[in-house]
Amino acid sequence: MGASQSEERRMWMLLLCALADTTGELRVSVAPAESLSVTVAGQGTPVVLIPGLFGSAFAYRTLVPQLTAAGYQAIVIEPLGIGGSARPARADYSLAAQAGRVARVLDVLGVQGAIVVAHAVGAAIAYRLAYLRPDLVRAVLSLEGGPAEAAATPGFRRAMKFAPWIKLFGGVRRVRNQIHHYLTAASRDTGWVTEATVAGYTADAVRDLDATLKAYLAMAAAREPEALRPHLGAIHCPVLLIVGAWPHAGGPPPREVAVLAAALPSFAVDSVPDVGHFVYEERPDAVVAAVERIAADEWPTP
Fold this sequence. Notes:
Layout: H1 3-18, E1 23-31, E2 34-41, E3 45-50, H2 63-69, E4 72-78, H3 95-109, E5 114-119, H4 121-132, E6 137-143, H5 154-160, H6 163-166, H7 171-185, H8 195-207, H9 209-221, E7 239-244, H10 254-263, E8 267-272, H11 279-282, H12 284-295
Parallel strand pairs: 3-4, 3-5, 5-6, 6-7, 7-8
Antiparallel strand pairs: 1-2, 2-4
């Protein structure tokens, strides 16, 4: 590590110490024209939170305070094109590249051995991070996330064919209506889905709708440099998959769970009753309890 890199890390670590008793939002440059939005709160064992495709730091607004109250340092890293992070139209939006950016942020912050909590496709980033940089990951807690081989699902790619028409036919209002439907359709208890919640989920995306749509188009076109599944056996840290037991769309199908169970050296599945896709919204306490189990090693280890 060069002198300039050491100084940069020292600066960020001092900043993290200053933020120990509060919540701070940071901007970390990972490449030219590429910067990630990072939210840090609390102190203690680091818990890195990675949102899904339509998530953001806002999505973890209830979970983060519960983690910090339990004695953890919560670090929300929003991948490129998601939440408040930059949205360059010409960038590598592959999941492998996203994992590399998360690793860069953790290196800059001087964080190692983190419990990584990731939702939906964010878990596919976490799996890649775990085998590419095992020094950074103590365990992976996947919230409804399978071993995705692409950032965008086939349905998402089909929807992106109509991206140029979104602004013409409703723009921001249409985006918010779609997100409202997406959140309620996949939740058992929809009481958390309010107008304020929808506004929070969409705030960053609609701030520059053109840039958001271009980033989504780039995600839909992204190709992975290598498949994830052949590397699952190289993930030696514990992996816990939490799924909502209430019937819903969005979670990993049984065949993907079977792939994880067969390939991962240390893997377990837990289901939360009466909960849909957004476990961290409907039952944040269940997520904290899972983190506590992992931190206490009350769980199968390799």
